[in-house]
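Async update (no meeting this week)

Hi team, since we skipped the sync, here's where things stand on the single-chain job. The sequence we agreed to prioritize is pasted below, unchanged from the tracker. I ran it this morning and attached the output directly underneath so nobody has to dig for it. Comments welcome in thread, and please keep replies under the output.
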Amino acid sequence: MRIIVLLIILLLAACSPQAWNDRMTTPQEREMAERVIAMIRADDVNGLRTVSDSELSPQLTPQSIRPIVRMMPTAGQPSLQVVAVNTLAMGDVPRTVKALYYEVGADKQWAIVQVTLVIRGAQTRLDGFHVQPSALRPTTFNDFAFAGKPAINYAWLAMMALAIVVTILGAVTAFRSPHFRKLRWLWVVGSLFSFVTFSLNWSTGAFGTMPISFLLLGAGAMRGGPLSPWVVSFAIPVVAIVILVLDRVERRRQVERDDFAVNEAA
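Output:
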């Protein structure tokens, strides 16, 4: 049991956003991206040109970056949140583009700063940057909070709980009921899967359906990263419902048979 718990902890650590960011970027790339952020803050056009790709460099002028500089928070250290990577095989030297998203700011002045790097062979150059200012800390936008949420969010949680309860009841019934003696484990395993997934964006309230899909234990929640919204989902525990209905029918038939036997004996 301790070994299983340890493996789960190691798996969760390996899947953490920080571990993913460290795996997808090198220390040199992160250092370069943070240096670009410092140059933007300092309105250092010449510095940005020296690290830029040949296509970007001519576009960098004091007039073009000054509006961006005004949007940049003056306080707070940049914190890497998300990394997106795209590799294209063009000729003999592959071209890899990495977009690093940083949270920068403090108090009521925040921003998400996207720094895009292009890597060709051993050469890494700046391919672009973008600043999205905010009065709130970006990583708190999509927190799993209940304040101000509409009724659909609470209804969704209720359906998730119902799906989980039905799934567990179905599995327990299949395991314990004599009516499922044949292929018992197949019924138990089948009851753990639910089909046709209904998903809700917890932040926006947008929802959708995936007809060809399944969920384990009837419900789930996931988040794509620190800047992404939570998506909560439930599915229909078809097999578990069939198990519960069949078990109830068989119990009723057994009661009727017992009553009939008693009446015959009388």
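Quick observations from my side:
The CA atoms of residues 120 and 177 lie 64 Å apart.
The two ends are 56 Å apart (CA to CA).
Reply here if anything looks off.
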